[in-house]
Each structure stands twice: as structure tokens, then as C-alpha cells.
Amino acid sequence: MAGVLYVVATPIGNLKDITLRALETLKTVNLIAAEDTRHTKKLLQHYGIQTPLVSFHQHSGTARIEQLVHRLLQGESVALVTDAGTPGISDPGSALVAAAHQAGICVVPVPGASAVTAVLSVAGLPAQRFRFEGFPPRKAGARQRFFEALRTADAPVVFFESPHRLLATLQAAYDALGDCTVVVGRELTKQFEEVFRGTLSAAIAHWQATPPRGEFVIVLIPYATA
């Protein structure tokens, strides 16, 4: 009988933001497939979990997927985790999940932390529906076209950004959309957590005065001003 692939959400910062079910799953599976084993090892050591680890990231290739599917078909259970948050959301976890489905393996979600829902919960904006865009393009021209395409958006748009591209991204959004409402979450659930809410021009001024550091998740409202 085949094993089970558990898709396990882990904390996005604060290690206490993990469910009891996630901890039980990580303790009892045969193997944990982690985006970065060094990062996940810190979480496991914090909770005294000694389950074996294997890496699974964007450069793992089909051989690693085949290896994991083989172990699942042999009856072992595997937990899939990402560095932070829910696997399959802007990370390579979906490839393993798809392969497991194709092989007839049971795939079980173990939900928990997500930067997307975390920022929306503190944005103070209607979020009956929203649009998630991952990371904007890195190149200036493509990034500008990305924001120009949001001019017709009628729901909040959520995306991630790195600190060294934050200002360029906010400026590109301003150039394409005008001075609309934005919520910027920085280092959510961590020691230096910050939530900024205002106009794009105010956000640009804020991060010009305070050099961006840490991880950012942004909610953009193309159709509204603060």
C-alpha cells in the first residue's frame, strides 16, 4: 500500500506559528522533503524532531521527484515543506505534488502559516477575493508592463518582493497606476515586523528614508486611493 504525501505549512518567521498537527506529522513521517534542509533543520531542532531530511528545491530535477515517488509507492510517508509558509505557493513544491497525484498517491494538506493571508488580515481592505502574483518581473521593462496590466484589476493584488528591488517596484507601480493604496508587510511575525498602509508616494518616501531590509509582501489596490 502506498504512503501519503503530506503538504505541511511551516512558520513564516515566528517558530511558534506552527500547528500541533504539523508537529505530529513531521515527527511521524518517514522522511521530510525540504526546500533548504539547513533551514528546516533549525525548526526540527527547536521542537526536538529527528525525522530524516532530504532536499527538494527548484534545481532538484526529475530524478529527485522519481526517488520520492518511489519511496511513497513503497509505503513510506513523506512531508513536503518549504522554507517558510505553505508549500506550492511561489516555490517548487507543486511539481512533487503533481507527480504524486499522477502516481495515485494520496496527498494531504496540513495547513498553517501563509504570508499572503497574514498580510491581507492586517491590511484593513476588502478581501472577499484577491489576486496573487508571486514576484514581479526583475527586468525594468517587464516590471513596468506587469503593473500596466493591473490597471483593470478590480480586486486587491498581492505579491512578494525582495528588499533590494522594493523601491524600484513601488516606483514602477506608481508610474503605471498613480498614487493608489498600498499595504507593505515587512518581516511578518518576526522581531522587526512592520505593516505600512498608505499611498504609493508615501510608501516610496518611507522606504527611501528607511533602507528596506528583510522580506516583503505587498497588497496593491489599483482602483483606490488611501
Features:
226 residues, 5-stranded parallel beta sheet, 5-stranded mixed beta sheet, 10 strands, 36% helix, elongated
Quaternary state of the chains:
single chain
Task: Give the topology string: H per helix, E per strand.
Answer: EHEHEHEHEHEHEHEEHE
- Could you estimate the helical fraction of the residues in percent? 25-40%
Strand order of the largest sheet: 3-2-4-1-5
- Low-confidence stretches are none
Shape: elongated
Biggest sheet statistics: 5 strands, parallel
Q: Average pLDDT across residues?
A: 94
Distance between the termini: 56 Å
- Strand fraction equals 15-25%
Q: What class do helices, strands and sheet pairing give?
A: alpha/beta
DSSP helix count?
8
Number of strands: 10
Report the C-alpha radius of gyration, rounded: 19 Å
